Each structure stands twice: as structure tokens, then as C-alpha cells.
Amino acid sequence: MKSNIEKVYSKLPKTELSTQKVELGVADDIRAMSNTIKEAINDADSKLKEFKDAKDEFAKAEAKALKVRATASKIAGQYDKFSNASQKVLDKAFKAADDIGVSPSSIKGLNDLVDLADDLDNKASDVLNFDFNLGQ
Asked: How far is CA 22 from CA 9, 10, 17, 31, 130, in A?
């Protein structure tokens, strides 16, 4: 003879239990996927903030570099004036040395001035040709 519980179970539709299992499984999947997506959204928000911060930092650096680069020709022009003035001084020194019959290198500071003028010419060229490589 069947117990009351067995009688009740036997009268229940068999598909209802499996439907409840499926519904519970789907609910678990939905909850798990929702949690995964929430974590992904938080991660995306964090990355987007990181990207924005990097972009802002790059924009500031780019603006500074462009400002400095804009002054390059002005600065190089000043260096050219110094170079021209030093060349006039050197020409005078060479002429004076020739006039009195001494070696130009015997004039105190002449060799240093020649070296300094050459260095300044090289620096002026470096300033004009400096490449900030701004990706433009």
C-alpha cells in the first residue's frame, strides 16, 4: 500500500518538478550573469577614467610642447645674433693678430671663443630641428 506522501507525489505532474528545476537553474544563471556584467561595467568605468586621465595628461604635455616649439625660431634667431656678433669679434681678433704679426691662437680666450661659438651654432641647429614627435 502507498503512503499518503507517495499518493500525493504520484498525482503531481512529473513535468512540474523538472520545470521548477529548470526555472531555478535559469534564475541562478541570470543572477550569475548579472553579477558578471556588473563587474564588467565597473571595470569599464575604471578603464574609461584611466583613459580620460591619460588623455588629459597627454593634452597638457602636448600643449606645453607646442608652446615651447613655437618659441624655437625666436630663440634660434637670438642665438644667430650672438653667433654673428662673436664672428665679428673673431674677425677683429684675426685681423689684429695679422696686423701685428702674431698667431691668432696667442690671443687670450680666442680659442675658447671659437669653441663656444661653434657650440652655440650646434645648439641653435638642435633647437630648430628638435622633434617632439607628437604623433602629428
From this structure: 19, 20, 9, 14, 69
| Torsional sign, CA 86, 89, 94, 97 | negative
d(CA 39, CA 41): 5
Domain boundaries, the chain: 14-70, 71-136
Instruction: Kindly report whether the global pTM for this prediction surpasses the value 0.85.
Output: no
Task: Calculate the average pLDDT of the chain.
Answer: 85
Q: For residue range 66-99, what is the model confidence (pLDDT) as tens digits?
A: 888 888 878 888 998 998 999 999 999 999 989 9
